[in-house]
Design a protein that fits this description.
heterodimer, A: 565 residues, 67% helix, 10% strand, elongated, B: alpha+beta, six-stranded antiparallel beta sheet, 10 helices
Chain lengths: 565, 343
């Protein structure tokens, strides 16, 4: 009997090798279309092979049953009724172990393999994107940006270090020839502002007090005003802001740089009154003239942060436009102002820093039907909290930049370049990914989509289907393996010794049959679950499916026992 | 002694007749059972894919749906049942060639009969055309390979306030007041965009879960194409009828070549798998022989009188070659003896 177990193990190993070789062949056929770079080519091939092979575990298990019970285990191993009982127990044990392994694959290893594949594709797109940006930045004299692009390539694909060195050398040589520093170079000196976003009114008031104590009137006024705006009960914050303003005016009267103070005061007023774009350009201009002024550098950063709540800088959009993302995304929402708003994105790109859309069409339809109320197009958009910012600012020129182009109608005043969304960036990206391939999402994300029908809409069905597919997969494996064992025993080989070479050469044919058999069982399970979905909610479907699968497993087991007897 | 010899001969004939009748009955019953199971699965998938709570209630078309599905699945069930019966012939206590011959004759008759009579069976309780056309829902987006459409309102097959996001040939956005879904052709035509969208290619919605997997779908389409090709031969009156029966006979003879695989090795499961695969592949893909490109090859090789029967001749040749190949394999009686010795 121990020998039989060893032989079954060898059969399983053979099955794994056979199916892995087939998966590898398919991967080699698929990869040229992706045009991957360098090491990423083999990263993708191995990851795709692993994913496919793991997905074929049910077929591998069925094939192992067919070969083990049908060929490898001879009647001499079984030695009567006890041997048959042992055989049935062994079959059940193998099946359950395979099902457990399949669950582990589905939850952990297959998503990791998929992620590695996606990383290879994304890294290739990134490298190509950075190459293009490097050329553009060099041409436009933005040498630090060009160097960053080159360095980024080295981070993404370390094996391209020779290319990175060449690109860095090119940037150095171009800079040495340039007559003046690139506009973006000066951005390096801007003191990065620590965003006060998220700070409470009290925290801002404390910052204002600290600034007041050290004589920084502008900062004291800014944070005092912000604290009062956040919490009108904080009267001391208002008093502090007023006191700081008085000091500013006094200093303006006294200081020789009255004009600078006036302009700084004007900028600060614009910033505190919510005219952040105007404030940005004011401080931008001041920074050009007085690059050493700490106030100007600080408030330039603050106004830049404030701008990012309602707009974005077009160089960010251009930098990110080439990054991989989700294509052809459609999102529909209902709102008070419109019966439906439909947003179509050519591409949606999510990064840890921000989420951007490339190519947006937005359409508003009202209750009365007929022609849409508005239709706008925008080349770029940034997802900011629960809104879409459509206005793209040029860092230096207020007259340049991008904005929404209204092809029909218009939106309310103040919301023409800022579209409210009923969901946040994360859920929007989840929905976007679900519109692609739902197997990219983990179970938690799929459930979040399912629980949000008003937002998810047509994607909800795809998410539900994927959840059911993952739930049914281990049961399909168990049922198929038990039935395969029953069939294999009935049709077991009658060779006194080893099968001849001719028969061994035909072994891949049961492999193909195993794939078809698993596909058929899986399809029957899926049709059953789909019919239940028509009548029941997901929880009810899951409960019913589990009961039905239990019954089917018992039937498969009885079939096996009957055949073996 | 003569009396004993006669009795023994009578017993043998009686056993032969029993075996033939039993083989025949098992084949027919098996065909009906497989047809019912396959029809039920196909019917359930069609019902789910076309389910629409705003349409007629299920009870009104469940019967016609099942009848339609079973009649369409019966041809595949016949080939499946023949394959199983063929492998079981090897394992019976005594191999009887007469049983095999009668099995083949019944199989051929039922295949031809199924091709001819299935449409008439469906007319007993016809399924209303378009009863199960996939649904386009309002307030949501339906995704096709060529475009996405958003529909604000729907009234049956009339879609109102439609926003069309085209992907091919160029990206564009278009507003259409009204679009009609044709449930008979299962298409959605948008003349202003020069688009005809097929409802069977919808990528979103509840119908997607019922799409058959790739391999199963390929077999199903192959069988449908083959059946359609055979039925089209009957459109030429009596000559067409004769041509149909010649084609069916040739097809069944080619499938009968699987007999060689049935006693190919001493591993019944391997034999059965090859027989099953071959018996489903031949009818699933034999329609290729009627493809225009292949017909052009016939035209260059055969005369005009022979060309209509070239496909049938090819199938008969394949069947004959396979049956001849079977002589190199152990005979069924030898395999049966060895099985009994081992067990």
């Amino acid at each position: 009997m121990k020998g039989a177990i060893v032989r079954i193990g060898l059969v399983f190993a053979f099955a794994v090798i056979l199916f892995s070789l087939i998966s590898l062949s398919i991967s080699m056929l698929e990869v040229p279309a992706l045009d991957l770079l360098g090491d990423l080519y083999w990263n993708w091939v191995w990851a795709n092979t692993a994913e496919r092979a793991m997905g074929l575990l049910p077929a591998i298990t069925v094939f192992t049953m067919l070969m083990s019970v049908g060929v490898v285990i001879s009647p001499f191993d079984l030695k009567g009724a006890l041997g048959l009982i042992w055989l049935v127990k062994l079959i059940i044990a193998i099946t359950l172990i395979a099902a457990a392994v399949h669950v582990v694959f589905s939850l952990a290893l297959m998503p990791a393999a998929r992620s590695a594949k996606n990383d290879a594709v994304a890294a290739t797109a990134l490298v190509r994107h950075y190459r293009a940006r490097h050329s553009v930045n060099l041409g436009e004299g933005r040498f630090p940006a060009a160097r960053r692009n080159a360095s980024a390539i080295g981070v993404v694909v370390p094996s391209l270090d020779e290319e990175v060195r060449t690109m860095l050398r090119a940037a150095d040589e171009a800079e040495a020839d340039a007559a003046e520093r690139a506009i973006f170079d000066s951005e390096q000196d801007v003191v990065p502002a620590r965003r006060a976003a998220g700070q409470t009114a009290t925290q801002r008031y404390e910052r204002a007090r600290t600034a007041m104590e050290r004589g920084d009137w502008f900062t004291a006024h800014l944070y005092g005003r912000q604290a009062f705006d956040l919490d009108p009960r904080l009267a001391s914050a208002r008093e502090l802001a007023d006191e700081a303003w008085n000091e500013i005016e006094r200093a303006a009267r006294e200081d020789d740089r009255t004009e600078l103070f006036e302009r700084k005061r004007g900028g600060l007023r614009a910033l505190t009154e919510g005219r952040s774009i105007e404030a940005y350009y004011l401080f931008r201009e001041l920074h050009e003239e007085h690059p050493d002024d700490q106030d100007v550098r600080r408030y330039l950063a603050e106004s830049r942060n404030a701008v990012s709540d309602i707009a974005f800088f077009i160089e960010e959009g251009e930098e990110l436009a080439g990054l991989p993302g989700e294509s052809d995304v459609v999102y529909v929402q209902e709102s008070e102002d419109y019966r439906f708003e439909i947003f179509q994105f050519d591409r949606l790109i999510g990064s840890p820093a921000a989420s951007y859309a490339v190519g947006l069409n937005a359409i508003g339809v009202d209750e009365d039907g007929g022609a849409p109320i508005y239709h706008l197009r925008a080349p770029f958009a940034r997802v900011v909290d629960r809104s879409l910012a459509l206005r793209g600012l040029h860092p230096d020129r207020p007259d340049s930049g991008t904005d929404a182009e209204y092809l029909r109608g218009s939106r309310p005043e103040g919301l023409q370049s800022l579209l409210p969304l009923q969901t946040g960036a994360r859920q929007l990206l989840r929905i976007a990914r679900a519109q692609g391939e739902t197997n990219q999402l983990n179970a938690a994300d799929l459930l979040r989509i399912y629980d949000d029908p008003a937002v998810a809409r047509f994607v909800r069905e795809s998410a539900t289907q994927e959840l059911l597919r993952r739930l049914l997969a281990p049961f399909t494996l168990v049922i198929a393996a038990l039935l395969a064992a029953a069939v294999a025993y009935t049709g077991r080989s009658r060779y006194a010794d080893r099968p001849p070479l001719f028969a061994l050469l035909l072994i891949p044919i049961p492999g193909l049959a195993a794939v078809l058999f698993v596909e058929l069982i899986g399809y029957v399970n899926t049709v059953l679950a789909g019919l239940l979905l028509i009548a029941l909610p997901l929880a009810g479907v899951v409960a019913t499916v589990l009961i039905v699968q239990g019954v089917l497993i018992v039937l498969a087991l009885l079939t096996l026992v009957h055949r073996v007897r | 002694m003569l009396h004993c010899s006669l009795l023994s001969r009578c017993d043998s004939i009686r056993n032969d007749v029993k075996a033939v009748l039993w083989t025949l009955a098992a084949f027919v019953l098996r065909s009906l059972w497989y047809g019912a199971v396959l029809g039920l699965i196909a019917g359930a998938a069609r019902y789910g894919a076309g389910y629409d709570p705003e349409r007629v209630s299920a009870a009104q078309f469940l019967g016609p749906l099942l009848l339609d599905s079973v009649s369409r699945a019966f041809l595949a069930a016949l080939f499946l049942s023949f394959a199983v019966s063929l492998t079981r012939l090897v394992l019976v206590a005594k191999f009887r060639p007469l049983a095999g011959a009668v099995l083949w004759i019944a199989f051929t008759a039922l295949v031809g009969g199924s091709v001819l009579l299935a449409p008439r069976v469906r007319e007993i309780a016809p399924l209303r055309s378009g009863a199960l056309a996939p649904v386009v829902r309002s307030g949501g987006v339906t995704r096709f390979p060529e475009a996405d459409i958003f529909v604000a309102d729907r009234d049956g097959y009339e879609l109102r306030d439609v926003v069309l996001f085209s992907r091919t040939p160029t990206r564009s956005v278009e507003f259409v007041d009204e679009v009609f879904v044709d449930p008979f052709s299962r298409t959605l035509e948008i003349p202003s965009a020069d688009l005809i969208l097929s409802m069977d290619e919808v990528r979103t919605g509840p119908s997607v879960i019922f799409h058959a997997p790739a391999l199963i779908g390929a077999f199903a389409e192959g069988f449908a194409a083959g059946e359609s090709e055979l039925r089209s031969m009957t459109e030429n009156g009596r000559a067409g009828g004769a041509r149909l029966w010649i084609a069916v006979t040739a097809l069944c003879f080619a499938v009968a070549g699987a007999w060689s695989f049935a006693h190919m090795t001493r591993w019944p499961l391997l034999n059965s798998t090859v027989v099953l695969g071959y018996s489903l592949a031949v009818p699933g893909f034999h329609w290729v022989l009627y493809d225009p490109d292949v017909v052009r090859v016939y035209e260059s090789v055969f005369s005009a009188q022979v060309q209509p029967f070239a496909a049938a001749a090819t199938l008969i040749l394949v069947g004959a070659l396979l049956l001849l190949t079977g002589v190199v394999f152990p005979s069924p009686m030898k395999i049966r003896r060895e099985i009994e010795d081992i067990e």
